[in-house]
Write a structure and sequence with these properties.
Immunoglobulin-like, about 500 residues, alpha/beta, 10 helices, 20 strands, 10-stranded mixed sheet, TIM Barrel
Length: about 500
C-alpha cells in the first residue's frame, strides 16, 4: 500500500488543475520527475455491446468491425445485453418434455465477426441476461423483429432454482457452445457448433444493482455456482464479478465479494468490475459549463474508486480491477432529439483520458471506454463511431492514441502548475507527458524543467483523427480545446 504522503501530494496537485479554474493563455508547468506515484499498469480498452447496428447487413457493420480491428486493443468486453433478448439469449423458452429452445442463429454472426476483428487478442465475455423463464415473474411476449428493444426485460430476482444450478448450467452450455464445439441440452440431445474459441475471462452478470437487484450474499452464491459449472468447459478462464452501475452507493458489495471467506472453497475471484458515466444534463449554456459538470462528477467517481481499490488491497490484493464501462452520457439527448453539441465528442474524450490517468494512479488494471456503437434509442452519446456512417469520432481516436502511446510499467510522476489552470498532466517513464486540457479554450504549456523532443500527438476540438504538431519551441506546447496530448519529452 502506498503511503498517505503520496495520496496527499496527488490531491494537492490535482486541486489546482480543476476544470473550475480560469484559463490562462500560457501556463507554466514543471514535472516532478523525482516523485513516483506508482507504475502504469492500466490498460486502455473498450466494450462492445450487442445491438442491431452490429448485425450483418446494417449500414455500418463493416466499418464498425474494421474500426475495432484497427484499434488492436486487449481485454475488450463483449456484452449481449438485455434490450434485445433474441440477440443475446439462446434459450428464450423453458424446456418441455419434448424439446428445448436452444438457438444461436441470431447470436453467432455478431460474435463470429467480433472474434475475427479481435484476431486472437484477449476477450472478456459477458452474456449478461438470464432467461426470464428461470425467474418466478411474468413471462414476456417476444416481438417478431429481433431489432425491437424490450427495455422491460428482465424482471424479478426470485429464481425458481434457489441453488442457481439451472442458471449455472445455462451459462455452462453457452461456454461449451463457443469453446468446446457444442453441448448436450436438458433432454440429452447434442447441439454442435464447431466453435473452438478461447476467451480470457468470463464476467458473471452485469449491473446487478439494477438488473434483478440481488444483494451481495445472493449474488456471491450465484457467482460461485456459475464459476463452478463453466470452468470445467474452459479451465483457463478467469472470472470477474459484480459490474455495479452505482458503486458509490453499493460499496458493501465489494467488501463482501472480495473476502475469500464468503466464497465456496476453491472458487476463484480473478477480477472485480465497476462502472461510471459522467452524465451531462442538457442543454448547457456553454462548453465550459458542461466541462465543469463532467469533470466534477469524474472527481467524485475517483473518490469511490479510491475506496474500492483500498478495499481490494486489504482483502484480496491479487484481484484485477476492470472499470469496464467508463465514459460520458447525455440522458435527455439519448431519448429525444439526438442533437449533441458540437463540442461533446472532444469533451467526452478528454473526460475518458482524465479518468484513465486518475485510475492509473490508483493502480486499476483495465479501463474500458463505453462503447463501440451506440445509436438513437440505445444511448447515442456513448458511441465511438458515427451510427450513420461508421466513421470513428474523437472518443475512438483518443482511445487509439492512448493505446498506441502508453507503455505498461512506466513510472508515473506528477506535474505542478505555476498558476491555476484546467490542466491535468502526468509524466511517464521520464520520456512522455500525458496532458489533458479540461477547457474548451486553447492553452499553451511552458515547461520549465522538461524539453519537448519530437512532434506532439493529440486529439481535440477542431481535429479530425489523431493529429501531430511540432512544438512551438523546445519548452512550449500548444493544446487545443479539450485536447488530449502525448508529448515526447526529456527531463533536464
Amino acid at each position: 500500500m502506498r503511503g498517505m504522503g503520496i495520496y496527499a501530494l496527488v490531491y494537492c496537485l490535482l486541486t489546482i488543475t480543476s476544470a473550475h479554474a480560469e484559463v490562462n493563455a500560457t501556463v507554466g508547468m514543471e514535472v516532478l520527475w523525482d516523485q513516483n506515484l506508482g507504475n502504469w499498469k492500466t490498460i486502455p480498452t473498450l466494450q462492445v455491446v450487442v445491438n442491431p447496428m452490429l448485425r450483418r447487413g446494417s449500414r455500418i457493420h463493416p466499418q464498425a468491425f474494421q474500426a475495432l480491428k484497427n484499434l488492436g486493443t486487449e481485454h475488450v468486453r463483449y456484452v449481449p445485453w438485455l434490450p434485445y433478448p433474441k440477440l443475446g439469449i439462446p434459450a428464450l423458452y423453458p424446456p418441455t418434455t419434448e424439446r428445448t429452445s436452444w438457438d444461436f442463429t441470431l447470436i453467432d454472426p455478431m460474435l463470429e465477426d467480433f472474434m475475427a476483428a479481435m484476431e486472437g487478442r484477449k476477450v472478456i465475455l459477458n452474456f449478461s441476461t438470464i432467461p426470464q423463464w428461470m425467474v418466478n415473474a411474468p413471462q414476456p411476449t417476444y416481438h417478431e423483429d429481433p431489432n425491437v428493444a424490450m427495455w422491460e426485460y428482465p424482471k424479478g430476482a426470485d429464481f425458481l432454482d434457489k441453488s442457481y444450478k439451472q442458471v449455472a448450467e445455462y451459462f455452462g452450455r453457452i461456454v461449451k457452445w463457443y469453446s468446446n464445439g457444442g453441448f448436450t441440452d436438458e433432454l440429452g440431445k447434442e447441439h454442435k457448433s464447431g466453435h473452438r474459441y478461447s476467451f480470457d475471462a468470463w464476467e458473471v452478470l452485469n449491473e446487478i444493482d439494477f438488473e434483478r437487484a440481488q444483494n451481495p450474499e445472493l449474488y456471491t452464491k450465484l457467482y460461485d455456482a456459475v464459476v463452478e459449472e463453466i470452468r470445467s468447459a474452459q479451465p483457463s478462464l478467469k472470472f470477474i464479478g459484480l459490474g455495479l452501475a452505482k458503486p458509490a452507493e453499493n460499496l458493501r458489495y465489494y467488501e463482501y465479494f472480495l473476502n475469500p471467506a464468503n466464497h465456496s472453497a476453491g472458487i476463484p475471484v480473478d477480477g472485480i468490475s465497476y462502472h461510471f458515466y459522467a452524465k451531462l444534463k442538457l442543454p448547457k449554456n456553454s462548453a465550459k459549463a458542461a466541462a465543469v459538470e463532467l469533470f466534477t462528477e469524474t472527481d467524485k467517481f475517483i473518490q469511490t474508486a479510491t475506496k474500492i481499490e483500498e478495499m481490494k488491497k486489504q482483502l484480496n490484493p491479487k484481484v484485477w480491477s476492470y472499470v469496464n464501462e467508463l465514459g460520458t452520457i447525455c440522458d435527455e439527448v439519448d431519448w429525444h432529439n439526438h442533437a449533441l453539441p458540437n463540442y461533446y465528442w472532444s469533451l467526452s474524450s478528454a473526460v475518458y483520458a482524465y479518468a484513465l490517468g486518475r485510475l492509473a494512479i490508483l493502480g486499476a488494471e483495465v479501463a474500458g471506454q463505453s462503447q463501440l456503437v451506440g445509436f438513437p434509442s440505445q444511448f447515442p452519446s456513448v458511441s465511438m463511431v458515427n451510427w450513420e456512417t461508421g466513421e470513428p469520432n474523437e472518443r475512438y481516436w483518443v482511445l487509439k492514441m492512448l493505446k498506441d502511446s502508453l507503455q505498461l510499467g512506466d513510472a508515473i510522476s506528477p506535474a505542478r502548475l505555476f498558476a491555476p489552470a484546467p490542466i491535468f498532466a502526468l509524466g511517464l517513464g521520464n520520456k512522455k507527458l500525458l496532458v489533458v486540457n479540461q477547457s474548451p479554450k486553447p492553452i499553451t504549456l511552458q515547461l520549465t524543467n522538461t524539453k519537448v523532443m519530437n512532434d506532439v500527438v493529440f486529439v481535440g476540438l477542431g481535429s479530425s483523427g489523431i493529429q501531430k504538431r511540432a512544438p512551438a519551441s523546445p519548452h512550449h506546447v500548444q493544446l487545443p480545446g479539450f485536447g488530449v496530448a502525448m508529448i515526447p519529452v526529456q527531463p533536464h
